[in-house]
TrEMBL record, chain A:
Gene3D superfamilies named among the record's database cross-references: Aconitase, domain 4 (3.20.19.10)
Protein name: 3-isopropylmalate dehydratase small subunit
Encoding gene (name): leuD
Function of the molecule: Catalyzes the isomerization between 2-isopropylmalate and 3-isopropylmalate, via the formation of 2-isopropylmaleate.
Keyword annotations: Amino-acid biosynthesis, Branched-chain amino acid biosynthesis, Leucine biosynthesis, Lyase
Keyword Secreted annotated: no
Originating species: Silvimonas terrae
Automatic annotation (TrEMBL), chain B:
InterPro entries: 3-IsopropMal_deHydase_lsu, Acnase/IPM_dHydase_lsu_aba_1/3, Acoase/IPM_deHydtase_lsu_aba, Aconitase_4Fe-4S_BS, Aconitase_4Fe-4S_dom, IPM_dehydratase_rel_enz, IPMI_cat
GO molecular function list: 3-isopropylmalate dehydratase activity; 4 iron, 4 sulfur cluster binding; metal ion binding
Required cofactor(s): [4Fe-4S] cluster
Positions that bind [4Fe-4S] cluster: C348, C409, C412
EC identifiers of the protein: 4.2.1.33
Gene name tied to this protein: leuC
Name this polypeptide is given: 3-isopropylmalate dehydratase large subunit
Reactions mediated catalytically: (2R,3S)-3-isopropylmalate = (2S)-2-isopropylmalate
Keyword Ribosomal protein attached: no
Broad enzyme group: lyase
GO biological process: L-leucine biosynthetic process
Oligomer and partners: Heterodimer of LeuC and LeuD.
UniProt keyword list: 4Fe-4S, Amino-acid biosynthesis, Branched-chain amino acid biosynthesis, Iron, Iron-sulfur, Leucine biosynthesis, Lyase, Metal-binding
Family: Belongs to the aconitase/IPM isomerase family. LeuC type 1 subfamily.
Length: 213, 468
């Protein structure tokens, strides 16, 4: 997995609550059997005025000039600022794949849907929960100042504004460790292979019907 | 100490607990479909790893498969490649059971698991699909996972997770005529919101829940995720046991007796503490219809589309206005005056035999309204289809002008050819009314199978309780 340590990135504000994973990456792009190449279709139905299908040349499609991601001032953004319940709906990991492929490494919101939140960590994308008032302030500052950047420091667990205001955020020790080091989680788990085998043997003894083949 | 059902399911699967509370949880059943597994199998291959226990895997192709002209195969080459990739992966790695495209037992993974007895009480069940919460209806701990976790489960038979908080949603009283598990689910989501269950494992309890059939409980648990809860569950009772008896992968003989004895302990103990309790009065729940682009934007069939002017919170008002604009609805329009273009009866929420019986009972002897361009019935699996045909339900639907299709996810998410065109309005028994969910620009109203069938006949939403 890709490591995440620290980032100073341009912020793009997406001022909508309940952004679902169908909106982040529509279903037709889920037919791919690859993990990469989803970036050009991130927020496809909002970002383009025509209907997108896999295999299309996105560079010749009609762009929606009113969608925030298409504002020239947000080109190259790496931090997505969002509202409550971001990433709700489908479990598709294609959503963080698309965000990452586009260039977003951090998503900040007052709350996230559970599965999406979890999927982000597996892909080196850092989802950060900040209090609603802090997110409101970041929206105001982002919209007020072109070129607005945030500094995100995972080791210190802080988000810092250009004026030096700093907000702390929570993350479990396990997730922080994996993300800072860019660790392969399967490899880590397999260090417990003997414990898994021992558990499995006890489980089989008490509920043998779970192991009928 | 008194334990909740969730406590029992969690504790009986902890392999290892770290200092920060992150646990390794053992996984009993791994359901696999074609959309969220190819990258996981590829990862396994690239790392030179083998699956830990292939006899935990039950796989089927459901999202991409067409619902008509099966003799022509899968026409979309990208969809076909995804389904063929699953065929190849299962052939290479193995599985307890695989129900490929066109197999009699093929169908929606969340219909296939329970009907084959591959979902059992006390299990941990995962799948790269958010509606895995469905299986909690059997007193199992079941939830959706991402593709990285699919790979993790394949390789290690475990998941890394922290225990969620526990919520009890208690629905006491008798459900009225025409009020189904779907209406209970939508009423709960309307009350607690689409993020109300975030961070919680939700147990549904109370006399109204116990009165639901296993199909009704599956519908309810299926939509736990639409309230933000990864896992929904219902305690084991005699209905659970009766449903599972003699199913293909359910235990038999002495093992059956032993299993049933254990399963009956899978209830929350008297006095068990929940982090949150939400109560609903069953007698107050009416047939539900969503009017917006989130399942929480719901009202009862006698209600009306809300007026954003009455909303004080600017963020909420904004999303209300946006939803009405997308849905092409005027504020204050009575729900039963909303005309529809299409009807979809199907999905992992409402495509089981009981759902089809209920819809057929409404459609029987009627004709689809002239303004309804298409009313399609998509059974949840080949077995459901066969059962329905044995009961003559297919003929009832066809005589009423509905289309009788092959099983699959179909227009719930429109990954195959079944979809809404821009601006089309659909009465749908599925689970999500998100923008574009059933096709770009499509407008979805979530309802029960009875309500969907009645809307097909009337051409607009009608109160099923007054439908002759």
């Amino acid at each position: 997995m890709k490591a995440f340590t620290q980032l100073n990135g341009l912020v793009c504000p997406l001022d909508r609550a309940n952004v679902d994973t169908d909106a982040i990456i529509p279903k037709q792009f889920l037919k791919s059997i690859k993990r990469s190449g989803f970036g050009p279709n991130l927020f496809d139905e909002w970002r383009y005025l025509d209907h997108g299908e896999p295999g299309m040349d996105n560079s010749v499609r009609q762009v929606n000039p009113e969608f925030v991601l298409n504002f020239p001032r947000y080109a190259g953004a790496q931090v997505l600022l969002a509202r409550d319940n971001f990433g709700c709906g489908s479990s598709r990991e294609h959503a963080p794949w698309a965000l990452d492929d586009y260039g977003f490494r951090v998503v900040i919101a007052p709350s996230f849907a559970d599965i999406f939140f979890n999927n982000c960590y597996k892909n080196g994308v850092l989802p950060i929960v900040l209090p609603a008032e802090a997110v409101d302030l970041l929206f105001q500052e982002t919209q007020a100042a072109e070129g607005y950047r945030l500094n995100v420091d995972l080791a210190a667990q802080t988000v810092t504004t250009p004026s030096g205001k700093s907000f702390g955020f929570d993350i479990t020790g396990h997730r922080k460790h994996c993300l800072l080091e860019g660790l392969d989680e399967i490899g880590l788990t397999l260090q417990h292979a003997d414990e898994i085998k021992a558990f499995e043997a006890r489980h089989r003894a008490s509920q043998p019907w779970l192991f009928n083949a | 100490m008194a334990q909740t059902l969730y406590d029992k399911l969690w504790q009986s699967h902890v392999v290892h607990e770290s200092e920060d509370g992150t646990c390794l949880i053992y996984i009993d059943r791994h359901l696999v479909h074609e959309v969220t597994s190819p990258q996981a199998f590829e990862g396994l291959n690239l790392a030179g790893r083998k699956p830990w226990r292939v006899d935990s895997v039950v796989a089927t192709a459901d999202h991409n498969t067409p619902t008509d002209h099966w003799d022509e195969g899968i026409k979309d080459p990208i969809s076909r490649l995804q389904v063929e990739t699953l065929d190849a992966n299962i052939k290479h790695f193995g599985a307890l059971a695989y129900f490929p495209f066109k197999d009699l037992r093929q169908g929606i993974v969340h219909v296939v698991g329970p009907e084959n007895g591959a979902t059992l009480p006390g299990m941990t069940v995962v799948c790269g699909d958010s509606h895995t919460s469905t299986h909690g209806a059997f007193g199992a701990l079941a939830h959706g996972i991402g593709t990285s976790e699919v790979e993790h489960v394949l390789a290690t038979q475990t998941l890394t997770a922290k225990k969620s908080k526990a919520m009890l949603v208690k629905v006491e009283g008798e459900l009225g005529r025409g009020v189904t598990g779907k209406d209970v689910a939508l009423a709960i989501i309307g009350k607690i919101g689409t993020a109300g269950g975030t961070g919680y494992a939700v147990e549904f309890g109370g006399s109204a829940i116990r009165s639901l059939s296993m199909e009704g409980r599956m519908t309810l648990c299926n939509m736990a995720i639409e309230a933000g809860a990864r896992a929904g569950m219902v305690a084991v009772d005699q209905k659970t046991v009766d449903y599972l008896k003699d199913r293909t992968y359910a235990p038999k003989g002495e093992q059956w007796e032993q299993a049933v004895t254990y399963w009956k302990t899978l209830v929350s103990d008297e006095g068990a503490q929940f982090d949150k309790v939400v109560e609903l009065n069953a007698t107050e729940i009416e047939p539900q219809v969503t009017w917006g682009t989130s399942p929480e934007q719901v009202t009862n069939v006698r209600g009306a589309v809300p007026n954003p002017a009455n909303e004080a919170d600017p963020v909420k008002r904004g999303s209300l206005e946006r939803a009405l604009q997308y849905m092409g609805l005027q504020a204050d329009t009575p729900i039963d005056q909303i005309q529809i273009d299409k009807v979809f009866i199907g999905s992992c929420t409402n495509s089981r035999i009981e759902d089809l019986r209920a819809a057929a009972a409404v459609a029987k002897g009627h004709k689809k309204a002239a303004n309804v361009k298409l009313a399609m019935v998509v059974p949840g699996s080949g077995l459901v289809k066969r059962q329905a045909e044995a009961e003559g339900l297919d003929k009832i639907f066809i005589e009423a002008g509905f289309e009788w299709r092959e099983p699959g996810c179909s227009m719930c998410l429109a990954m195959n050819a079944d979809r809404l065109e821009p601006g089309e309005r659909c009465a749908s028994t599925s689970n999500r009314n998100f923008e574009g969910r059933q096709g770009q620009g499509g407008r979805t109203h979530l309802v029960s199978p009875e309500m969907a069938a009645a809307a097909a006949i009337a051409g607009h939403f009608v109160d099923i309780r007054n439908f002759a």
